[in-house]
Automatic annotation (TrEMBL):
This is Exocyst component Exo84 C-terminal domain-containing protein. One of its GO terms (cellular component) is exocyst. The lineage of its organism: Eukaryota, Viridiplantae, Streptophyta, Embryophyta, Tracheophyta. Belongs to the EXO84 family. InterPro entries: Cullin_repeat-like_dom_sf, Exo84, Exo84_C, Exo84_C_1, Exo84_C_2. Pfam families: Exo84_C, VPS51_Exo84_N. The keyword Transport applies. One of its GO terms (biological process) is protein transport.
């Protein structure tokens, strides 16, 4: 046991020494190859290259399997990280607001405590300041909340966003240069936060309305993203597309007398066109950010699974139970045809469908095989072959009797059984 442990330790030390060469900042790949291959002939070099290529392919395949095996966990983790970042941002804003409020209250208490000992000259100066003309900043501070309320009431989203940005700039500059008191600055920040939240709720309400479609939906989602609520905006976008194709599915009702392929074609067109439009809008507004891409993949997978369950319930189950292999295969082919169009948008959902459709197809195949066995057994039982002795045949020559000479040796009856189409 001790010798084995020592051997493992020596192997690990040797491997670490070999890898140490590649960790150097001055590693020269050409010189390293020359030092290792200078004594090899052409055949040995070709074998080495082939071996390295095989290792490269095996490594790539192993990495691909590892990615596929952990892809669901990766997507779930990315979504949780995104949600956690949103919660941390909300907590940061809340703490900042609370700190500003505390400073404002402390300053107010300090001012109240000094109001009883204000010198007479200060009182005269204050009375004089009451009659002076307000500055442009003071006028802007007075008009800013009312102006924002008007923009929100008129649903002028772009103008409201510009006004909010302007307010943020004024507040940031005032905080940096200390041109406003804490109470005034707190009032401005509170007004901005309240109107920002009101605008976000207004945009979310617009996105949730069934009548919101196309450019109007994209504009509302984009504005909500600009307000800093990206996760909520992306979820609302996906939900809007879900509600849209769910509304269109109300007019699609399967019938026991209808053709299963027609129902599958109509349903798959609705579902996968909705997923395709959602993917297009997500890419246009949010780009290829991993958090939003992961949410899109999870949402698309969920919609595909729901679609597969509907097809199985209304088309595949009855066909599979009756042994209709052709009808079942055609339904699967139609669904896969529509689903494969999403691969151009980076959504490979065909494996999800195949996994869910496979039991139904296998059931239809088993039913067909069972039917074939029953028909074959019936044919075998219906055949009535009788072997009789052939009549005496006089041999004229030593040549063997031909096959045609034995046709009369057998008498049989054929019963033709019509096999229905499978």
């Amino acid at each position: 046991m001790a010798s084995r442990s020592r051997a493992h330790a020596d192997t690990g030390t040797k491997l670490e020494q070999n890898l140490h060469v590649f960790q150097s900042d001055h590693f020269d790949a050409d010189a390293f190859v020359q030092s290792k291959c200078h004594s090899l002939n052409e055949k040995e070099i070709r074998q080495l290259c082939s071996y390295l290529l095989d290792l490269k392919r095996a490594s790539a395949e192993e990495m691909r399997r590892s990615v596929y095996a952990n892809y669901t966990a990766f997507i779930r983790t990315s979504k949780e990280i995104s949600d956690l970042e949103g919660e941390l941002s909300s907590m940061k804003n809340l703490l900042s607001t609370q700190a500003t409020l505390i400073h404002g209250l402390a300053e107010g208490v300090h001012i109240d405590s000094l109001s009883d000992v204000v010198p007479e000259s200060t009182s005269d100066r204050s009375s004089t300041d009451e009659f002076r003309e307000p500055s442009d900043l003071e006028k802007w501070l007075t008009e800013f909340p009312d102006h924002l309320d008007v923009l929100l009431a008129e649903r002028r989203v772009d103008d409201a966003l510009l006004s909010l940005d302007e307010g943020e700039c004024v507040a940031s500059e005032a905080k940096e240069k200390k041109t406003l008191g804490h109470a005034v600055l707190l009032s401005l920040q509170t007004a901005i936060a309240e109107r920002r939240q009101k605008l976000a709720d207004q945009l979310a309400e617009i996105a949730c309305q069934p009548s919101t479609r196309g450019a109007e939906l994209r504009a509302a989602i984009s504005a909500l993203k600009k307000l800093g609520d990206g996760p909520r905006a992306h979820s609302l976008l996906l939900n809007a597309h879900y509600q849209k194709y769910q509304f269109n599915m109300k007019n699609l009702r399967p019938s026991s007398t209808s053709y299963g392929g027609a129902y599958t074609a109509a349903l798959s067109q609705l579902v996968f066109s909705g997923i395709a439009q959602a993917a297009t809008d997500s890419l246009a507004i949010f780009g290829k950010e991993p958090a939003y891409t992961s949410e899109l993949v999870m949402w698309s997978t969920k919609q595909t699974e729901a679609f597969a369950l509907l097809v199985k319930r209304h088309a595949l189950t009855s066909s599979a139970a009756a042994g209709g292999l052709r009808a079942a295969a055609e339904c699967v082919q139609i669904a896969l045809g529509h689903c494969s169009l999403l691969e151009a948008r980076g959504l490979a959902l065909c494996p999800v469908l195949l996994k869910l459709f496979r039991p139904s197809v296998e059931q239809a195949l088993d039913a067909n095989l069972k039917r074939i066995e029953e028909i074959t057994a019936a044919l075998a039982a219906a055949d009535d072959w009788e072997l009789t002795h052939p009549p005496s045949v006089t041999r004229i020559s030593s040549r063997p009797v031909g096959v045609l000479g034995l046709t009369g040796a057998y008498q049989h009856k054929f019963q033709v059984v019509r096999i229905g189409s499978i």
